Amino acid sequence: MTVRELDAAGITDPSLRAAYTACRRLNARHGKTYFLATRLLPVDRRAAVHALYGFARYADDIVDDLGAGASTDERRLALDALERQWLRAVRGEEAGEPVVRAAADTRVRYGIPARHFTDFLASMRSDLSVEEYPTYADLRSYMHGSAAVIGLQMTPVLGTVVPRAEAEPYAAALGVAFQLTNFLRDVGEDLDRGRVYLPLDLLAAHGVDRELLTWSRRTGCRDARITSALRAAAALTREVYRAAEPGIERLDPVSAPCVRTAFVLYRDILGAIEKDGYAAVHRRAVVGRRRRAAVALRGLAGALAARTAARPAPRTDPAGFGPGSGSANGGRAYDGAAVAAANGGAVTERRGEDRS
What we know:
This protein is mainly alpha-helical and 356 residues long. 67% of the residues lie in helices and 0% in strands. Helix 2 crosses helix 3 and helix 9 (164-185) packs parallel to helix 14 (256-275). The termini are close together. Residues 313-356 have low confidence and may be disordered.
């Protein structure tokens, strides 16, 4: 976490600053699209977004990446320990895990309902036992906790120009759209973990089942039925993006460019999958660096314009300090960082607080 971000957010306790910094590192390492988009937020809101992402990433890593060969029981015990720490933090007690401390602090600062975190952990727990979803309705039930609540957690941080309750359905839909995109992009990797997230009834409508997907993954052979099913899944996901998009204009104008950038970059993954011939069973499709940079630059221009419009008119200072000095100059410090993140992916940070 940069000193500037922590100071702007009013986070002064040294241990909390370290906790937020740990969350930012998780975001930089794992969430290239989210990390890039977060750089477009006002500096005082970035720490909270990193905290929310860090908590979600940490729980997800327990489920999927808890060391080679970790058993389901070991993962369950680790998730139990995380949930116990979370419940202690909600009660105002000390939690040892940095991501828990940062997320709990963010929850209090922004008045985020605790149930959104409880629902999230419940969906993470289901990943330890549920390997497939018979219908889209079944999958939506899972995604309420794994994706929709992430949008609901974020809404108070981003701010809205309408009552929060009016913006929340769009935020939830955007979380679902992002996760459906992940499921489509990562279908082969999820198969390796024994999971099929795409609804079985959607697959069956195109003559596809788990056995055919596994055969294709194992042999590297293509099958027109799989291509047809993945194309249908992409069409379904695009419908969710269309349902979510009107929510962007309901956000605080200084936050909207961040969300718009994430929206465009994540939706572009669907285009990359299509361009790759819907070969997601065999490889992960990626959005090219040039495209990422172009979207980031548009987002940056929008963020600067929104921030300028929201800034009070500067007073005339006889000492010569005015526009372009002090914190206004600091606003330009993130411009290059956002473009660098677009061109090179996640930003690598040195140990401790990044003073860039």
